[in-house]
Structures are given as structure tokens and as C-alpha cells.
Amino acid sequence: MNPYETLPPKAFWRRAVAENSMYDVSGLWNPKFKLSPKMPVSTYGSCFAQHIGRALQARGFNWLRTETAPFGMSDANRLAYNYDVFSSRTGNIYTTSLLLQWLQWAFGIKPVPEEIWEKGGRFYDPFRPRVEPDGFASVEELRASQQQTLKSFRESVTQADVFVFTLGLTERWLNSGKGYEYPMCPGTVAGEFDEAVHQFDNMIFSEVQKNLYAALKIMREQNEKLRVILTVSPVPLTATNSGKHVLVATMQSKSVLRAVAGQTADSRWYVDYFPSYEIINSPVFRGNFFEPNQRNVAKHGVNFVMDSFFRDLNARFGRKEDAPAPAAAKPAAAPAGKKSKDEVCEEELLEAFAAGGRK
Amino acid sequence: MKLCIIGNSHVGALRTAWTSGLSDDFPGITITCFAQRGQGIAEMVVAEGRLLPANPYMKRTVEFTSGGLSEVVVAAYDAFLLYGLHEHGQETGDTWYSSAVRAAALKDKVTGQGNHALLVKLRGLTDKPVWVAHDPLPALDPSGLVAADYDAELAEMQRLYYDPLQARLVPQPAETMVAGRATKLAFSKDSQPLAVGDDRDGRHHGADEIQHMNTAYGEIWLRAFLPGLAAPA
């Protein structure tokens, strides 16, 4: 008798994977805690994180949004103005250090930097450069909007039962003199790049981990009942400034994020890890969930990920009677085979800076 | 004065009020209604000098509500009222919005509505006076309602979106409203679906109905509106 003799089928590659159709590979996630339809869930992170909130809502779960659009605003304008993208209008939070920075600002641990970008008489928030497509009318408007989002972000932490965060990048841009982080390299979406001020950094495992642990500490201090689900974005980098080939840089970055997420979940009872990264990227799935550019995740890939999320949740805890079955859920986004048009992804703008421009 | 009313189920309250005796008080006015439950009537099709039903169901309901007419012949009327097909509301929280967000939302609130689509179609056919009115505000318990600046928002809609189309936005009568964002609860009591010649005709909405208003509401609305009909839109 040895330990392998009593392991379940999922522990063996042949039975769990090789002998199955890829669409029948299941049970990848064993949720640590229950997620019932009434529990408020906040969602933040990289571009891929946007699908999670919408999928929750489409299945009758309580996607918490603490900064909502005005009455009557169309779906197109909600997207353009970054409403209903995440729980509040933070824009993409790609790194664990950006998450920590938002938490430090929202809970008064650090002040929000004074920096503002101006172009053509309009004013842009360096920390949410695309939150308003044409910038703000005045500095006062920008400041008021920052305060609203900080309040809403704060509420999305304190009012949530579950906080879902999707880790996206390790590469980041810092203000070297003042130490704060930009979500996008200055000079890309807005602002002007100054090599004397703007400093590239590619975080290593320990930095990503340290920032995530610090973020979790703040969140749990503010909301002791909060549970956290981590995911890693399966979407490759649009561009890297690391000097490496973008494919290699992508694998390094994702490997670091995956390792941090896994180790964090393994070491904290209130943190879980959902394997969206594996579902899209594992060779088992043969790249089927990507669009032809091998970067964007196709709608059917997003659906497969989210179906897996709810199937594993139901398998572990059973379906709540008041939760609509996935089959009855409204489609969350674009038709099958098309990239979701309802995705706000600032990082993709980097493609425009490739030699020859965007194709 | 021959008034043509085109709209959704909310036309029912006006029509019932008019045929229940109100017409006697306005002998110089005739009203013809072309209505359908839901938002579908905004899909009416433009033809030369006419608005035509977009499908057989619309044709049946239009014929029933108009008393046998299957199309809106624009030349047959002196003025038009596009009633309903426009959900009006204002946010209730204290969320701060930028001027660009507010402007975008206001535009969506007008141009995303069925009655605006119908107005654009109608303006392609005639320069005659056109009035536009939103669905009744929902009937809500007034306790705890935060006041909305109803008049200011309608004025802004008028200036930006209805003036260019030479149409006049008609406000809900003040005596029916609470806090600029709701209709008094009494007006939703005993409301009925728009009669279109099917088995729901004559029934009442349930006690929890908050969207549709009763004949008393229809009478107040028309009494507020009709005296101004002679004024330019």
C-alpha cells in the first residue's frame, strides 16, 4: 500500500486528462468557500477580470458595483466611461503593487499624488488615463472623480463578502522620484514620457508576493469577513520592455504571478485560487480558446472558463435554489468566435507603438 | 383640432379618460390613438406621407386602438402627441459624475428612447406641431424619496434635443408627482392594460403595479395638456 493507490482519478494525468475530451476535463477547482447568489462580490484586476463580474451577474450572483452609471446611460457609454467594468472606476489594476497603491490611497494610508496630465485643454488622471475617453473638463472635475472612485473602491472592499482579483502583469512603470506606480507607461495612453522620471521595473516573485500580502492585510483589516479569490490572466503581454522576446517575457511574468497566487492561496485559508490561467493556457486545450492572434481570448474561451467556475462551485456546494442555471443566463458579451467588444483594455494600446503601427 | 396620439400602453389611461366623458369638455378637439403595448410601435415604418405598422400584430393593435385605421396618414391631423416610449428617471444616490458623463447620459436618455426614434420619423414627414411625453414616473411610496430636479432636466432635454426637432416635451402634471421622481400611489390603483382587442382588455393590473396609471391620471394629464394644444409646439 502506498499513497498513490488511494488517490482519486483527478490525481492521475491519464484518467483525468489523457482519456478525456478536452471539453470533459473538469474538477480543476475545488473551491475553499461557498459563494452564494446573495453574497456581494467585488471584482478588479487586468483585462480578463472584466469577464468575471459580468459572468457573475449573468448567472444571478451579486456583482457588487459601488460606482454606478447615471440613470439611462447606454451600455456603449457605460463601457466608454468605465462603468460596470469593475466594481468601481479604477480602470485596470494589472499588478499587485497597483492594488496595494489603490488600497493605500482609499484607506488614507498614503495620499493620492498631485500629478495630473493635460492635453488640449483636457485633463487626464495618470492613474486612470482612459477612465473618461476625452479626459476631464477641469482639474477640479478630475479631483472630484478621483475622490468618488476612492470612496467607491473603499466601499467595494468593506461591503464585499468576496474580492476577486486577477493578476495580470509583473512589468510596471514607476515615478522614480516619488515612488508611485502608473498603470500604463506615461506617453502611451496619455501624458509624456520622461526618461529621467519614468522608470521601468519588472517585479520578481518576492516583490509581487510582498505587495499582495500587504494588500491582503489592508483588506482584511478593513473587512475581517472578506474572502479573496485570485486568478491569473491568461492573456499574454501586448508588449514587453524587459528586453526579452515578448513570448519569453510573457511566460516569465505569468509564471511568477501563477506561483505567487498559488502560494498565497495555499498559505491563507481565506484566499482561494481559480485556475482560469490553466484552462486557457494548458496544452491540453491546444490553444483553442485563443483568437488567431494567439493573444485575445475568444468568447467561447471566456464562457468555458466561467462555466468551469460555476460548475466547480456547484459541484462543491450545490446550486442555490435562487441562482439561475447557467443555461438560462444571458450571454455576457459578443457572439462566439469574436473577441468581446465590451472589454476595456488599456494595455492593448501598446500595440500601436509597434514598428509599422497597429495592423 | 385633430390630434393624433401615438404611443405605448400608457396611452390607455388617456384614451379611457377621453372616451369616459372628457371629450365633452373639449368639443373642438378630436383624438385618434395609435397604440401598442410594449415599445414596438416605435418601429413604425415611414412611407410617403404615412406611418405604417411594422408587422401584423402592430397592424391589429393599431386598427383596434384607432377605431379601424391601419396607418397614420399625417395629412389627416393637425398635431401629434408621442406619448410614452420614454422611461424617465434620475439617479438616487450621491455619486459624483463628471460633466462629460452627465452629458452622455442625458443624450442617451433622450436619443435612446422609442419616442425619439418616432419623432425623427415623423419629422421626416411633417412640420406640424409635435408634443412628446415620457411614461408616467413609477408610483412609489413617497417616504424616503430624495427629491430630483425634474424641471431642470426636462428643460435641458428640451434645449438640447427637442428644440432642434421643433418638438415640445410635455412634463408630467405636478399634482400627480412626488419629489420629481415618482407618481403618487393613488394613480396606479385600478390601472388597466391598454385595450387592444385581446383577452387582457378590461382586466386590472395587480395591486403591486407601479408603472401604469389609471383613468384619473389620464384625465389630469389631458386636462393639463389640451388647453395648450393651440400654442405652437
How would you describe this protein?
The complex is a heterodimer of chains A (359) and B (233). Chain A has helices at residues 13-18, 50-58, 75-80, 96-106, 139-158, 205-222, 246-267, 276-281, 299-317, and strands at residues 40-45, 62-63, 117-119, 122-124, 162-167, 171-175, 181-182, 198-202, 227-232, 271-273. Chain A has 359 residues and is α/β, with parallel strands linked by helices. Chain A has one domain. In chain A, the strands form three sheets. Chain A has a five-stranded parallel sheet with strand order 2-1-5-9-10, with helices on both faces. The model of chain B has no long low-confidence stretch (mean pLDDT 93). The two termini of chain B are 14 Å apart.
Question: Topology, pairings included?
Answer:
The complex is a heterodimer of chains A (359) and B (233).
Chain A lengths: L12 H6 L21 E6 L4 H9 L3 E2 L11 H6 L15 H11 L10 E3 L2 E3 L14 H20 L3 E6 L3 E5 L5 E2 L15 E5 L2 H18 L4 E6 L13 H22 L3 E3 L2 H6 L17 H19 L42
Parallel strand pairs in A: 1-2, 1-5, 5-9, 9-10
Antiparallel strand pairs in A: 3-4, 6-7, 6-8
Helix pairs in contact in A: 4-5, 4-6, 6-7
Chain B lengths: L1 E6 L3 H9 L10 E6 L9 E3 L2 E3 L3 H11 L5 E2 L5 E5 L15 H13 L2 H10 L6 E4 L16 H13 L4 E4 L6 E2 L3 E2 L31 H11 L8
Parallel strand pairs in B: 1-2, 1-6, 6-7, 7-8
Antiparallel strand pairs in B: 3-4, 4-5, 9-10
Helix pairs in contact in B: 1-6, 3-5
